[in-house]
């Protein structure tokens, strides 16, 4: 059995999509834990509704000591999956889980990446720059926002009439369709 830990900061729609995708135990992949840095985020309610343990973390647990790393190791974590997690992952965690932390970004990196570029901020920038297309980037996490090696990208076209909300919907559909499949492929490569 391969174990995934999901990190989130907000609503948790991507988290729910991943949990439902791996709900079939024949895949031999288990979502062991959902980690969240916002106690009031709806993803905490989703975790409860999905019967998955959730852990609220503070900055001390992730940046000042090895508490979170110890918890992840005790859960025999094979892959850490960021799903709308807004904090920068510290180097200590990257070193503890080399090439085992991935993220999904709602644009075609290297465009529209970096600190502060998440969610609607990205889609508004894409519209403001009159891009013809956008998409998703799934990448390994390193010590900089959105700069890790890219694993997978998929694009969608933007019509001139599209709003940032329209773009968000198109990008969400790509996230739902591709993120769980890429996670599954990566886990099949881990021995």
Task: Outline the secondary-structure elements.
Layout lengths: L1 E7 L4 H9 L7 E8 L5 H8 L4 E3 L2 H6 L2 H8 L4 E4 L8 H6 L4 E5 L13 H10 L4 E8 L9 E8 L6 H26 L2
Parallel strand pairs: 1-2, 1-4, 2-3, 4-5
Antiparallel strand pairs: 5-6, 6-7
Notes on the protein architecture:
By secondary structure, the chain is of the alpha/beta class. The protein has one domain (2-189): Formyl transferase, N-terminal domain (Rossmann fold, 3-Layer(aba) Sandwich). Helix content is 38%, strand content 23%. The protein has 7 helices and 7 strands; from the N terminus they run βαβαβααβαβαββα. A 7-stranded mixed sheet has the order 3-2-1-4-5-6-7, covered by helices on one side. Helix 2 links the parallel strand 2 and strand 3. The longest helix has 26 residues, at 164-189. The protein is globular and about 50 Å long.
Summarize the structure.
With 191 residues, the protein is of the alpha/beta class.
CATH architectural group: 3-Layer(aba) Sandwich
Order of helical and strand elements:
EHEHEHHEHEHEEH
Strand residues, percent:
15-25%
Helical content stands at: 25-40%
Give the averaged pLDDT, no decimals: 95
Q: Tell me the CATH superfamily.
A: Formyl transferase, N-terminal domain
The number of helical segments is 7
Strand segment count:
7
Distance between the termini: 11 Å
Q: Pick out the low-confidence regions.
A: none
Mind describing the biggest β-sheet?
Answer: 7 strands, mixed
Structural class by helix and strand composition: alpha/beta
Integer count of domains: 1
Strand order of the largest sheet: 3-2-1-4-5-6-7
Task: Give the overall shape.
Answer: globular
């Amino acid at each position: 059995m391969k174990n995934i830990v999901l990190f989130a900061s907000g609503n948790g729609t991507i988290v729910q999509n991943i949990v439902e995708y791996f709900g079939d135990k024949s895949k031999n992949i288990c979502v062991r834990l959902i980690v969240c840095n916002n106690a009031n985020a709806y993803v905490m309610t989703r975790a409860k509704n999905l019967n998955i343990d959730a852990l609220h973390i503070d900055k001390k647990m992730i940046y000042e000591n090895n508490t979170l790393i110890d918890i992840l190791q005790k859960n025999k974590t094979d892959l850490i999956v960021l799903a709308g997690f807004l904090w920068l992952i510290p180097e200590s965690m990257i070193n503890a889980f080399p090439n085992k932390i991935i993220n999904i970004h709602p644009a075609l990196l290297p465009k529209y990446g970096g600190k502060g570029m998440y969610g609607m901020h990205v889609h508004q920038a894409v519209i403001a720059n009159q891009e013809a297309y956008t998409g998703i980037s799934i990448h390994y996490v390193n010590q900089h926002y959105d700069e890790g090696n890219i694993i997978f990208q998929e694009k969608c076209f933007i019509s001139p009439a599209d709003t940032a909300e329209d773009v968000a919907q198109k990008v969400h559909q790509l996230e739902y369709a591709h993120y769980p499949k890429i996670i599954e492929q990566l886990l099949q490569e881990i021995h």
